[in-house]
Amino acid sequence: MKWLILAIFVGCAAYIHLRGRVRLRLSRQITDHSTFMAPLNVLMYACSRVPATRYIAVDEFPELAPLRERWQEIREEALALRAAQQIKASDKYNDVGFNSFFRRGWKRFYLKWYDDAHPSAATLCPRTTELLRSIPSVKAAMFAELPPGSELRKHRDPYAGSLRYHLGLVTPGDDRCYIEVDGERYSWRDGESVMFDETYIHRAENATERDRIILFCDVERPMKYRWAAALNRFVARKFVAAAASPNMDGDATGGLNRAFASFYRVRERAKRLRKTRKKLYYTLKFGLLGALALAIFWPW
């Protein structure tokens, strides 16, 4: 049974790695979060009611139409937040999901995270949070800013239970400001929206002199079967919700983010070791993974 489980895991991990045209280096993919989630993600793709493609037609999600129709109201609240300097990077190690993005200029203001609106969002963005509350399939939402010269390097999100929706609010209207999903580019425009599968490798860049602000949403992946939808909601509620990050005091902080500061100190030491003694770093890294696999699958 152990070897059957191992074979299923390796097969699913290989599928995740080979899926699409753009791939991570094998050494990076082995320890990427998406590898550990591979069996569950393959199940999500198999049960998906919408195509498991890079981009998905926004028309597949008619419940999102009010966001496009009222995009100018949403933009007004985003501009007010920017003027108040509330769309910002985290000043603490309490955003495990997006921590690496802050180093390259990306900023955010959470509107909700797999629950009701943050208190700060309900106070500062009442119209947007009320609109989001009326669309249950939107599980998480934020205003995301990509200032001039900023970039997000190649990455993939770990869990396939949602799809990513972007609505342009303040955009350069220039093809040099874009997101690239599995090698296919999309350039944001004011009032226009796009839906894509964030478990494909993607990257973003703003090579213009103008700012870019979007409404960024995680939308529940529609499922063919009730049991698959129930499983997806269970994982989101019990695990993804634990990555909640606050905008300010009084907002909820999930369990993963409460533990992230301690984990980050260990990670920083590991990164220093990789820079100074790369061979030792990779020997220890893959040695630990091998020891873990041996402990699980050795016929004791």
Automatic annotation (TrEMBL):
Keyword Transmembrane helix recorded: yes
Keyword Transcription attributed: no
TM stretches of this protein: 280-298
UniProt KW keywords: Dioxygenase, Membrane, Oxidoreductase, Transmembrane, Transmembrane helix
InterPro entries named among the record's database cross-references: Asp/Arg/Pro-Hydrxlase, Asp/Asn_beta-hydroxylase, IPNS-like_sf, Lipid_A_LpxO-like
Pfam families in the cross-refs: Asp_Arg_Hydrox
Residue ranges of every copy of the Aspartyl/asparaginy/proline hydroxylase domain listed in the record: 69-222
PANTHER family, alphabetized: ASPARTATE BETA-HYDROXYLASE DOMAIN CONTAINING 2, ASPARTATE BETA-HYDROXYLASE DOMAIN-CONTAINING PROTEIN 2
Family to which this protein belongs: Belongs to the aspartyl/asparaginyl beta-hydroxylase family.
Protein name, per record: Lipid A hydroxylase LpxO
Species of origin: Dokdonella ginsengisoli
Gene behind the chain: lpxO
